[in-house]
Amino acid sequence: MSTTTHPQDLGLFQTIQERHSVRKYETGVKIPDEELNEILEAAAQAPSSWNLQHWKFLIIDDKEKKEQLLPIAYNQQQVVESSAVIAVLGDLKANENAEEVYQGAVDNGFMSEDVKNTLVGQINGAYKGDTPFPRDEAVLNASLASMQLMLAAKAKGYDTCPMGGFQRERFVEEFNVPERYVPVMLLTIGKAAKPAHQSDRFPLEKMTVRNSF
Ligand SMILES: Cc1cc2nc3c(=O)[nH]c(=O)nc-3n(C[C@H](O)[C@H](O)[C@H](O)COP(=O)(O)O)c2cc1C
Question: Where is the Nitroreductase domain (predicted)?
């Protein structure tokens, strides 16, 4: 079973400690929309470059669609046993969000129209040309939201598993993902039927360097 016994609101450090990748879920569990929305809204509180919010969540909770996803995800059963699979997509044209993002600040008097236009111009400039930048940004920023989603789910009493093991091209094709988006990862979410495998982490000395290599 899940190590989560609290219905919600674990402290942050406890949530982090208790989040592990669950691969066996209780079947037939529906996450109430309000709870799922709360989790997604918490995910979207993640920081992003220029606040462009480079993520799109494709929620796959329909039984037939999950069955369709199963072979695309190399038959990982968690796809069909979990309550939902959230495909986190990264926005390759997040610069197109800039106008909307900064207009709010202008309307609220936090930013002048001139500053907004300068910023939007800079952002569009960064996205110009055939460079890895848009893709790097899409994957980087959508990953931050993914992590936050997993922690928010855990704090709400659900478990998750991030999945990179799926055929991206086939997923894009079969789920009609517009060209604008790149699939970053799939996240299964639901009530654990079996605890996650034990996993350790490297000691701090192995993963830190102070000041310079
Ligand atoms: C980007 C990414 C891709 C992953 N892909 C898969 C996957 O396809 N299937 C799976 O069962 N677990 C997958 N995992 C889960 C990892 O195996 C797991 O996070 C790692 O072993 C650490 O264990 P923990 O999450 O339980 O702490 C993935 C994790 C990440 C971050």
Answer: 16-191
The answer to whether the beta carbons of residues 160 and 22 sit under 8 Å apart is yes
What number is the average pLDDT over the span 170-188? 98
How many independent structural domains does the chain possess? 1
Mutate-to-test residue for ligand 1 from 143, 161, 182, highest number of ligand atoms within 8 A of CB: 161
* φ, ψ (nearest 5 deg) of residue 209: -135, 135
Ligand 1 mean position, distance from CA 150 (Å): 12
Whether residue 193 contacts residue 26, with contact meaning beta carbons closer than 8 Å, is answered with yes
The average confidence (pLDDT) of the chain is 95
What is the position in ligand 1's atom list of the atom closest to the CA of 165?
A: 8
Distance CA 30, CA 140 (A): 30
Average pLDDT of span 85-91: 99
Q: What is the CATH number of the domain that holds 191?
A: 3.40.109.10
Query: What's the N-to-C CA distance of the chain in angstroms?
Result: 43
Query: What pLDDT does 8 receive?
Result: 56
User: Which residues form the domain of 150?
Assistant: 12-207
